[in-house]
Amino acid sequence: MAELRNKQVILNNYVVGFPKESDMSIVEGTITLKVPEGSSDLLLKNLYLSCDPYMRFFMTKEDNPLGIGTYKLHSALRGDGVSQVVESGHPDYKKGDLVYARTRWEEYSLIPSSEICLKIEHTDLPLSYYIGVLGVSGLTAYAGFFEVGSPQKGDNVFVSAASGAIGQLVGQFAKLNGCYVVGSAGSKDKVDLLKNKLGFDEAFNYKEEPDLNAALKRYFPEGIDIYFENVGGKTLDAVLPNMRLHGRIVVCGMISQYNLTQPEGVTNLAHLIFKRVKMEGFLIIDFFHLFPKFLEFVVPLIREGKVVYVEDIVEGLENGPAALVGLFSGRNVGKQVVDVSRE
Amino acid sequence: MAELRNKQVILNNYVVGFPKESDMSIVEGTITLKVPEGSSDLLLKNLYLSCDPYMRFFMTKEDNPLGIGTYKLHSALRGDGVSQVVESGHPDYKKGDLVYARTRWEEYSLIPSSEICLKIEHTDLPLSYYIGVLGVSGLTAYAGFFEVGSPQKGDNVFVSAASGAIGQLVGQFAKLNGCYVVGSAGSKDKVDLLKNKLGFDEAFNYKEEPDLNAALKRYFPEGIDIYFENVGGKTLDAVLPNMRLHGRIVVCGMISQYNLTQPEGVTNLAHLIFKRVKMEGFLIIDFFHLFPKFLEFVVPLIREGKVVYVEDIVEGLENGPAALVGLFSGRNVGKQVVDVSRE
Fold it and tell me: What is the distance between the alpha carbons of residues A253 and A257, in angstroms, rounded to a whole number?
């Protein structure tokens, strides 16, 4: 029975504060290319892996706020990926099928078929898109903006981490919906991208704004109807007094807070009352039923060039740890992807 | 033309931090008991005045977060009251009518008819109830709990400032709706009231709980479905990690924060994501259309003794400033009312 090399990214230790590359190691194991007898598992060859901020939660030993356990030390990280079925124990999948799955940071993974998010059918689009615009990042932007945000034509929309995997799509969806859209990001290049490639009306570099409140007043003299929240902390505190009556804050993430032992305090929450604002957190697991509807919506837009998607692809599992860690310093420009099989 | 003494409570200066009795004065003016020729105003004799936390916002000179101006210095405070029409310039009202109105802290007030909230018709119930359970306090509890909170039978409900004007009703409405209800308050007497008179399942004195998070875990081992937020700050921060999946935080007030130059920072907002919580602020002005429906709901409950209402009534305008200031130290037990005309 064929035994193959199976390179993995494993977690060396639980993390406190900002994750470092040295919290992970690259190791070489082996794997038998065979699904165990009688099992309905799938053996996958991982092609692309997704770097997602939520992975940080699994690196904390205790008090995991999601209550969903942690990564096992010295085992391959878990994460989303685009993979090809090498051998299938499940009748719905066959060798050669492409899937978007909750897989592991390694070359080959044996996973239960229940971990498949989507069988990939539109193979004329880049495969990496299935962990981005055509995957959970896209669905998150779609469900968050349209279902949680309840946008109206003409709404003033602010997106933080706007050039990221999700933010760039929220801005484009908002523009398609007739909204005025401003994004914040952490470098001049990202700001240029937002304005020149992604069609945002305005964008600013939050690192160059000593007074975020004043910046928001400048871009939203009439206030913000929808704030798509990806960062939390100081940005949220500056947004609150700038919300418009009956505004919505869609809480997708708070990446600026995930590595802080003591999160920044948000002091302006009373504006939720004054402006009658709804602030709502969501997780994409509640919206998986929208996946088919979302793909019907977004695939034609991509084909027509009305939605574009910026990816930041690193080559090789070896570069995975740096890519993952880079999310928290904003190193990535667009969706951070690890290309596993092209190495 | 009759000129009468018109005692008033006026604001001496704008307030920074906690308001003090000395920020207000009692003065004696006079008033002509006549509506100006051609005006549609009403001349009211004020019977009961309502002490409300929101009044604090009008005492701040700058940066009034509601954007609705401030009290005029050396003029009578504005506030809600139950009044009797002495003379009417408007065809809908006649001498002797009882009204619930946005009036002033004085014996007699000349106000536009547009400031009437409600013409009082059920005069078999205590008149003071119309600034409490039958007025905006009651409607706030009703709209906040039922419209914003979307309660389900069996929900776990936590109410802060639970013996206050609004909290005591939220708890009773929740019990009538088949919920499990726990309230927090700031004294043993209030806790006894909640458990023995107002029908809360449990209640605790937050001043005697060094670890609010642990207290909430004790009373809500399965988490909180609805938090009716009256206080903000540390209490909110302790509630967030104790929310249940798809919980709702109804933000009615944040009284603990109104007098702080620098509000307390809330650090646990990322739990909005993990638990998919909706946190929504509201102001009662958006729900005035529910007033008739609310009265149909609550009046029979009061008559049958299924809803009770605890008031803290002080006699005489002279005692108004102390009563108003007392809201912020929790001096009042139940709805704080000033009886103006019985002095």
Answer: 9
